[in-house]
Amino acid sequence: MDISDEGLTLDRQCIDVGNNVCGVLRGCRDASAVAARFVGAGWRSRSSSWHGYELETSWCQVEIDPIDGSDVLLNGIVDPARVDDLGRLLGFFGLPYELELSDESNALVREIRG
Length: 114
What we know:
The protein is an alpha+beta fold. 21% of the residues lie in helices and 38% in strands. The chain has helices at residues 12-15, 31-40, 83-92, and strands spanning 21-26, 44-47, 53-57, 60-67, 71-78, 97-102, 108-113. A seven-stranded antiparallel beta sheet has the order 2-3-4-5-1-6-7, with helices on one face. A hairpin with a 2-residue loop joins strand 3 and strand 4 (60-67).
């Protein structure tokens, strides 16, 4: 997977939110292939571990890591007003997903599935 430095970086206002999104991409064996889809949509990508990637745009910064051989774990920061955009993007990629959005006190705000 090519790493891309060409996308947008996370807006400073989102950094203050802290980690607020976590989820699972079902049936994905390779985080590299998932990262490549995000890069194709204009996101930045960089390796974060042996098999994981950090993905970033102005309203979202997440890490993806393969788990148990068939799913990919996703967690990080999303502008709460744009969580549906993240879901739509995953749906556009054809990736079945489950996302949880939390507030500043780590209380569950929303669950999104696609």
